[in-house]
Every structure is written in structure tokens, then in C-alpha cells.
Design brief:
The protein is built from three helices and 19 strands. About 15% of the residues lie in helices and about 40% in strands.
Length: about 280
């Protein structure tokens, strides 16, 4: 568990979920970086959104962090306390907030909710990376068990690289080598319907709290690691995210088997038609 001294000296923002499914927007990054990015997920929980947004992509493994909610009597837990669905989060003491959206200050944790304009507060557990000062964990590296071609996350109150709001950053790695790096600035530059800034005016907006999907479009950029970082040293800013999802690339034999099955099926169908 996180020490009380650490908890009281770190500030967090809330993560908000749009009620109902958000329409997806798709854009390719650039020809040199074969990643495509979409926004759009579905509201999780009942009522819809209290567990944030989650992926709609099939064949994924989803880390919800909700096991931390079952720990009695705590508002904060470690990422090592949750089911990581075969992935490995390092360091294991990265902060998971369990009190339904926290603003943590010198006086302790109190509930914090964004604007109610079309959104609802995520009251389930989620990962929060504070900035470097106060000895908070501001970076976590997620090692995946297999090469993967998809990563998704509910990105809460996105922070861009303004003077008062150091950026959230996502890196994709393969055996430790960085393949691609993204911040909210990259997403807005691409024209995705997102809003970043980290200020109180945008924390509750659906556009500031999207579910973001990253697809690697060729085998050269399949990845087996994801690194999340809260840049800078602003005590008021954190990188909040929930419902992490990844999709392992099918094993070669699985692909071969599927291809053979389809081939035999086509042959059988053709023979049947001839007999008629």
C-alpha cells in the first residue's frame, strides 16, 4: 500500500467517463509511423460510466484495476494489487486510486468530480501517475506477455504540454526499443476530437476524457511494452487512465490453422456445389 505520508503530499485530478458510447474517429499517424489512432469506447458499469470507458475491440485483455476496490478501508492501493491480465506493471507501487476520483492535498483525500455536462464521474479504481516531485511514481512500464498490435486506455482529463500542464506521454516499445511516442498534442494535431489542457474547465468534458485506441499496422511495429509517463513537476497534474486493453498477435500456427480451415471450407463448398 502507499504510505500515508506520500498520499498527503501528492495531488490528483479526476477521471471522467462519457455516458454512452462515443463515436469513433480514426486517423493514421504518418507513413513513417505505422500506427493508427481512434477514439471511441463504451461506457462500463451500471449506471453507464461509473467504471469509466472500455474498449470495443475484440480479442483483447483488459486491466480494469477494480480488484483494488475490494481492499477494505483504503482509498489508495498499488498496481501490484490488481489482476494485470498477463502483463507486468513496473514499478509495482504505482498508485491506484480507489475512492472514486480523488483530489489529494495536504489535508488528505476528498472526492472530486468534473463538470456534469454529458459525463459522469468514474467511481471505480484507476491508475494515477503523479509528477516527479514528492517522490511520486510518475512513470510505469507495462511489459506484455506477447507481441501485440493494439493498445487502448480510458485517458482521463488529458494533459497537453502547456506551461502549467506538463504532458501525459505514451511510448510503445519492442524489447526495450521505443517504436513510437504520443502525447495529447499529437492527437489534437492529427485532428482527433479530443481536448487537452488539464484545467478545471475541461476536466469533465467527454472530449477531454476519451477512450483512445492505438493500432500498429505492420509487423515491424508490433510491440511488447507500453510506457506511461507524467512529464514535468507540476504538483497539481497527474496522468489518469483506466481499463487498459491489449491484443496479442495470434500465434503463427493459429493463423496457419485458420487459413487452412478457410481453404478446406472453400474446397468443400465448391465440391458440394458441383455435386448438385
Amino acid at each position: 500500500m502507499m504510505s500515508q505520508g506520500f498520499i498527503k503530499s501528492t495531488q490528483k485530478l479526476s477521471i471522467t467517463a462519457a455516458v454512452g458510447a462515443i463515436a469513433a474517429t480514426t486517423l493514421s499517424v504518418n507513413p513513417a509511423s505505422a500506427f493508427s489512432i481512434t477514439t471511441g469506447g463504451q461506457a462500463k458499469g451500471s449506471p453507464a460510466g461509473i467504471e469509466g470507458l472500455t474498449t470495443t475491440v475484440s480479442n483483447t485483455r483488459v486491466i480494469t484495476f477494480n480488484e483494488a476496490d475490494a481492499i477494505p478501508g483504503v482509498d489508495f492501493a498499488d498496481v501490484s494489487d490488481v489482476n494485470q491480465q498477463g502483463a507486468d506493471y513496473d514499478p509495482g507501487d504505482a498508485l491506484v486510486i480507489t475512492n472514486g476520483g480523488a483530489f489529494v492535498s495536504q489535508t488528505g483525500a476528498i472526492p472530486y468530480s468534473g463538470s456534469p455536462s454529458g459525463s459522469t464521474n468514474n467511481t471505480s479504481a484507476y491508475l494515477s501517475l503523479p509528477t516527479n516531485n514528492n517522490n511520486g511514481v510518475s512513470q510505469v512500464t507495462i511489459t506484455l506477455p506477447k507481441l501485440s498490435n493494439y493498445w487502448g486506455l480510458h485517458w482521463g482529463s488529458m494533459d497537453d504540454a502547456s506551461a502549467n500542464s506538463p504532458a501525459n506521454q505514451i511510448e510503445f516499445l519492442r524489447d526495450g526499443t521505443v517504436l513510437a511516442t504520443f502525447t495529447p498534442d499529437d492527437l489534437t494535431a492529427l485532428g482527433l476530437d479530443v481536448e487537452a489542457g488539464g484545467g478545471p474547465d475541461n476536466q469533465g468534458l467527454a472530449r477531454a476524457n476519451p477512450y483512445v485506441n492505438f493500432f500498429s499496422d505492420n509487423s515491424g511495429e508490433w510491440f511488447n511494452g507500453v510506457r506511461l509517463t507524467q512529464l514535468g513537476n507540476n504538483n497539481n497534474i497527474a496522468f489518469e487512465s483506466d481499463n487498459h486493453a491489449y491484443r496479442p498477435v495470434p500465434e503463427p500456427l493459429t493463423i496457419l490453422g485458420s487459413g487452412l480451415a478457410l481453404g478446406f471450407g472453400a474446397i468443400f463448398k465448391k465440391q458440394q456445389s458441383r455435386r448438385r
